[in-house]
Amino acid sequence: PGALTNRPEIRIIMAQFQKQKTQGKGFDNEQSYHRIRITLTSKNVKNLEKVCSELIAGAKDKDLTVKGPVRLPTKVLRITTRKSPCGEGTNTWDRYEMRIHKRLIDLHSPSEVVKQITSIQIEPGVDIEVTISQRA
Fold first, then answer.
1. 18: Cα within 13 Å, side-chain hemisphere
2. Tens of pLDDT, residues 36-46
3. Average pLDDT for residues 88-103, to the nearest whole number?
4. In the 3-class helix/strand/coil scheme, how is the chain assigned residue by residue?
5. Does a cis peptide bond (omega within 30 degrees of 0) precede residue 110?
6. pTM of the model
């Protein structure tokens, strides 16, 4: 047993385990921590990325664990319609499309802190949905 703890790798792992163990005790005693998922959707990628970076910067300032932004596949909504209103003439078509971009950010924090983080200036056209669930 003594020979194992003399190895530097084992000591580092044990120190990390002890740190996690003590942090885990503090979570239950002080405040209840929640798993928070923030879903951002927008048609404008630039505004969406700006809001994402501001949210993550605010969360990292408060020393929260942040996962994301997870970039989900872009939804492309397409409508193809005839140019001619009466149906006469050559068959010419108009093609319209709208791209919807989506990002996910996961946080582990108290619900009070989320109110402070999400009080940033939100760009126009960006929809934010916040889902809070108990941490298991």
1. 6
2. 899 999 999 99
3. 95
4. CHHHHCCHHHHHHHHHHHHHHHHHHHHHHHCCCEEEEEEEEECCHHHHHHHHHHHHHHHHHCCCEEEEEEEEEEEEEEEEEECCCCCCCCCCEEEEEEEEEEEEEEEEECHHHHHHHCCCCCCCCEEEEEEEEECC
5. no
6. 0.69
